[in-house]
Design goal:
The complex is a heterodimer of chains A (about 525) and B (about 425). By secondary structure, chain A is an alpha+beta fold. Chain A has 15 helices and 22 strands. Chain B has three domains: about 10-120, no CATH class; about 135-280, Rossmann fold (3-Layer(aba) Sandwich), CATH 3.40.50; about 290-410, Rossmann fold. In chain B, the strands form four sheets. Chain B has a four-stranded parallel beta sheet, with helices on both faces. In chain B, strands 9-8-10-11 form a four-stranded parallel beta sheet, with helices on both faces. Chain B has a two-stranded antiparallel sheet with strand order 1-2. The N and C termini of chain B lie far apart (about 70 Å).
């Protein structure tokens, strides 16, 4: 009864809110539109003329991303260099009730930087300083504009040490399969994934401190940096960082981020296997990750293993395995690596003995290198997905309990094939037995409305099918958020709304992305 | 969301639409990067993005967004569009970084966008308009008289050149009218090395400035004229000292799209195109050159975009420099395929002189950071822009072309 009432309350409030907001936007639209010289002049006053534009030529690249998210033109793009400038922009935005969308590279997967209601794109690429790399306490502090390219190069050149004594060569963070120009900070605070997920968890689990400008322009520090100049840990303090991770830029602008960095292990190998079905590969993966011996274990369906992914759908050859899997192991000595190889072989033998249909399979060297030399502009380039022409790429990216993988794979496969798309699916384990990634890379033809619609419809249907089985989309586009909100515990949505309202009373921060405001 | 092709009146651009659509908007083009067992490189390479910052300017992603916007009628032509298009130096760094299937078409897309821009009522940079309005008469973009083109060549040398020869030395407009030192050093060097060459009495601009700024229609007669020169002189090839001429003669005259423009001007067949530095390397390898002196300096080499990324000639100049007695070659951080443009190309020096010079000043500072006393290159256009930056910044660096280093200290064995 309570849930029904809360849902009713939520629905009514939301309808009322949306109606009022629509009316405000309609009447104030003219005032806020990109032709408004007063707003332009104020933005210029804050950051300087050369860092503001309301020219459509400069706005259009900010109006869409890789995915099927509906393009929306921003009204202004502004590029602050300092925290003070961000504060002043936010004060102006609050005063004028203009949306502000934090932006660096827009290589997320769900139109997170597409301005649903227009407004100001706050392009943070000029804030590109690596403020600190502490090689003793093993953390780095970065600004939002720092790319994976920049940070990986800097970490590789810094050696783990204590009081001047160096232990080994270079550090690393969780490098994902995205373009090297992507923002490390944006990826990490939005629960991005990296190549150390199997060993350490997703990248938002590797954060240690942050500085945030709230939507109302106050600057706050969270974690150890709130007390000293040490950015090493959020713990044992209350986890207020949760107010800004996974919120897709709707609760504030993270201007500095502390993250844990890890010594590069000098020995690394990639072990590969194939399987007859999703069920078989899941059995193997769950068994192997039980020992917590790998940096990553991932499986890809036959369709994802094709270069490029087949588009439109075509049948898999009958004799081809349904899944291929690689696991990356690392160590400080060859002996350690050899031990891990032996354990892996043991797992494979045991699984085969109990009837799991595993097929011996060796990845090509280039593919193996792609897994050990991240970040890579080749792996992260979307090269494998663009050859089908049309340039569209999206995926229902989700976190799911591993036992749902085979069930959901079969459901997704049916949905994808029905829409003429290849079920190019990936499973990746995240740090032990708790959960993992389930996603389906989906090329589509952006030149054709019917192709865009098919991709969007298939993906939304996949999300709808997965939520009851524990699947949760990450970096969700608005369409996924609507599905999530419809299925959510009423109290959860109530709290999310309350937090959003508290932090952002004028709803200026990336409005429309949460599906509730 | 679909980006349908709706504006087919933009014919040159629309022809490329299938390729343009392959830009996934991934952003690899926005930053230079490589990491592998032996590589650890990360730096900004896009000079235009380095200056103007907005995504429209940075890498090819912004320009492909503009192209898609124009073709799908989501964007209208404006002076701002023109500014984005004409401030790109066409250095090819974004193309170098791109890994999607638009890659080979990126530079052609830029030039097609400029071609379309000329037909619109938008602001084309005055500097470009100025030389474009006279190039049909002057046959060069420097507003100089065509009949003065060979003034750089002393009559004593001119009279000694054969009527027929294996090679035509194609000096190019910059060396003919501005960096005469480079042209003169080249002919002296070629004579010392007993290369069978001559200089055309009627060389026209290679058409590089026209093609790079999208003026295909004007370019046509230039290409046709220059293509006829080898027959006239019984030559089997061109030698250039200009990276821009080399790129144009070896790519645009000879290669099919997207590398070249044979679709528009036909193919120049049976004619070898070689840069001086390649010829020297070849002769060194054959043991045909003897050094009679040394060049005792720490030298850093600037890769011209048109010789480097556009034509992938990276090692020949380095091999030659390493062979010169006394040369201590040191590299800038951004080198070879990850080089940083001098800021002159793509019509930018003529169109936006201050920005062009600002860019070359960045490159000069990078050269200074190596500890070199000499900055060298293989392009008179780079020479001019880098020299201007050296003078502006009062840099202690001395700019010399590699042919200027070689000429006084070599002879044919």
């Amino acid at each position: 009864m309570e849930k029904i009432l809360l849902n009713f309350e939520r629905g009514t409030t939301q309808i009322l809110y949306m109606s009022v907001r629509y009316l405000i936007l309609k009447f104030e639209g003219e005032k806020l539109a990109r032709g408004n010289k007063e707003i332009l002049a104020k933005l210029e006053q804050i950051v300087g003329q050369e860092y503001v534009s309301n020219e459509e030529a400069n706005l259009i690249p900010y109006s869409w991303d890789l995915t099927w998210a509906e393009p929306r033109m921003p009204d202004y793009v502004v590029m602050p260099k300092t925290v003070t400038e961000i504060q002043r922009i936010l004060r102006l935005a609050n005063h004028q009730k203009i949306p502000v969308i934090p932006y660096v590279n827009a290589t997320n997967i769900g139109g997170l930087c597409v301005p649903e209601e227009g407004g100001i794109i706050m392009d943070l690429k000029r804030m590109d300083q690596i403020i600190k790399i502490d090689p003793e306490t093993c953390y780095a502090v970065i600004e939002p504009g720092v790319s994976h390219a920049q940070l990986s190069a800097a970490l590789k050149a810094t050696n783990p040490q204590w009081e001047g004594v160096e232990f080994s060569k270079g550090f690393e963070f969780g490098w994902g399969v995205h373009p090297a120009s992507a923002s490390v900070l944006a990826m990490a605070i939005n629960h991005g994934i990296g190549h150390l997920n199997g060993r350490l968890g997703i990248n938002s689990q590797l954060l240690s401190s942050m500085e945030v400008v709230l939507p109302t322009a106050e600057v706050v520090k969270i974690g150890s940096c709130a007390y000293s100049d040490s950015w090493h840990s959020f713990l044992p303090l209350p986890r207020m960082d949760g107010l800004f991770t996974g919120w897709m830029g709707t609760t504030g602008i993270v201007t500095k981020l502390g993250l844990w960095i890890f010594p590069i292990r000098p020995y690394r190998d990639v072990l590969t296997i194939a399987a007859a079905s999703a069920k078989d590969i899941t059995k193997y993966m769950v068994h192997w990750r039980h020992y917590s011996l790998c940096d990553e274990v991932t499986a890809v369906s036959w369709w994802l293993a094709q270069i490029p992914i087949t588009f439109p759908y075509k049948d898999k050859p009958k004799d081809a395995p349904e899944f291929f899997s690689y696991t990356v192991i690392s160590g400080w000595t060859e002996e350690e690596l050899e031990y891990k190889r032996k354990m892996w072989k043991k797992v494979v033998q045991e699984e085969k003995a109990r009837g799991t249909q595993l097929i011996d399979f060796e990845y090509p060297e280039e593919a193996k290198r792609g897994r050990t030399e991240l970040p890579s502009r080749i792996v992260g380039s979307t090269k494998n997905y663009s050859k089908s022409c049309g340039g569209g790429l999206a995926w229902p990216g989700t976190f799911a309990p591993c036992k749902s993988w085979p069930i959901l794979y079969e459901k997704w496969k049916e949905i994808y094939i029905r829409h003429g798309l290849s079920p190019a699916t990936r499973f990746t384990d995240y740090q032990g037995a708790h959960y993992g990634m389930l996603r389906c890379m989906t090329p589509f033809d952006k030149r054709k409305p019917e192709s865009v619609k098919a991709a969007r419809d298939a993906m939304v249907e996949c999300v709808r099918a997965g939520i009851p089985l524990g699947m949760l989309p990450y970096k969700p586009p608005v369409e996924y958020m609507n599905e999530l909100n419809a299925a959510a515990d009423a109290g959860y949505v109530y709290l999310m709304t309350k937090i959003k309202d508290m932090l952002d009373p004028n709803n200026i921060m990336n409005p429309g992305k949460l599906g509730v405001r | 969301m679909a980006l349908e092709l709706k504006n087919t009146s933009l014919k040159e651009l629309a022809k490329l639409y299938d390729y343009i659509s392959m830009c996934t908007h991934c952003g690899n083009c926005k930053y230079g990067y490589e990491w592998g067992k032996t590589a650890n490189f990360a730096a900004m390479l896009c000079v235009q993005g380095d200056k103007y910052h907005f995504d429209s300017y940075r890498g090819s992603r912004g320009k492909s967004a503009i192209a898609k916007g124009l073709l799908s009628n989501k964007l209208q032509w404006s002076d701002a569009v023109s500014h984005v298009l004409f401030t790109c130096t066409g250095c090819g760094a974004c193309q170098q970084m791109c890994e999607t299937d638009i890659k080979p078409y990126i530079l052609r897309m830029f030039e097609a966008l400029r071609y379309e821009a000329w037909k619109q009522n938008v602001a084309i940079p005055e500097g470009i308009k100025k030389w474009s309005s006279t190039i049909g008469v002057n046959r060069n973009p420097y507003l100089e008289k065509h009949e003065n083109r060979l003034d750089w060549l002393p009559s004593s040398i001119r009279s000694s050149l054969p009527k027929k020869a294996e090679y035509i030395y194609f000096a190019g407009c910059t060396a003919s009218y501005r960096q005469k030192n480079v042209a003169l050093a080249t002919v002296k060097l070629l004579q010392k090395l007993k290369v069978d060459f001559t200089v055309s009495e009627d060389e026209w601009c290679c058409a590089s400035p026209l093609l790079r700024t999208g003026q295909y229609d004007l370019a046509k007669e230039f290409v046709e004229h220059n293509k006829s020169l080898p027959d006239k002189y019984g030559a089997s090839g061109f030698i250039t000292t200009c990276a821009g001429c080399y790129r144009t003669l070896s790519r645009d005259y000879k290669m099919d799209p997207p590398e070249g423009y044979t679709d528009k001007f036909g193919k120049m067949e049976g004619v070898k195109v070689i840069h001086t530095i390649q010829l020297i390397e070849e002769m060194l390898n054959k043991g045909e050159i003897e050094f009679t002196g040394s060049f005792n300096n720490t030298v850093t080499y600037h890769d011209p975009c048109h010789l480097g990324r556009h034509a992938e000639v990276y090692e020949a100049p380095r091999n030659v420099l390493k062979a010169i007695p006394g040369v201590n070659l040191v590299e800038m951080y951004r080198n070879r395929k990850f080089s940083y443009c001098c800021g002159a190309g793509g019509g930018v020096r003529g169109g936006f002189a201050d920005y062009s010079l600002e860019t070359s000043a960045k490159r000069v500072r990078e050269a200074e950071s190596t500890g070199a006393s000499v900055l060298t290159s293989t392009c008179p256009f780079c020479w001019r822009n880098l020299t201007d930056a050296i003078e502006m910044t009062k840099s202690p660096l001395k700019m010399v072309d590699i042919v200027e280093i070689l000429e006084p200290i070599v002879k044919r064995k």
